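Kindly review these tokens for lecture notes.

. . .
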Amino acid sequence: MVIVSFCSLQISTLVIVPMISFAETLSILSAQEDIPEEVLRAEIYTDARSPIDGKQLTAAEYTELMEKLRSLDGIPPEDFVSPKVREVIGLLKLRKFLKQFIPFIP
């Protein structure tokens, strides 16, 4: 009887001790990986992605690109599109309007 209880005590100890050490290991790892939100908010970004194509940029390149994009805000959108493309878009809009009244137009 004493041998059985001693064996069961050893087996339970073997099962519990690794669980405790595993839990301690997890808590140590999670403590190292978790960065407080206050620290993340105060972090200075040194790299960025281009809003045009998603390419990695440095902070200086990103600032330069954003200044160029802001300088284009004053230009009307019609100046970005060639006259031929504007004509095609106008014809497509006219066709869409006419299809409401004459549905069999191709």
Remarks:
- Residues 2-35 form one domain.
- The first strand starts at residue 47 and ends at 49.
- Residues 24 and 48 are 37 Å apart (CA to CA).
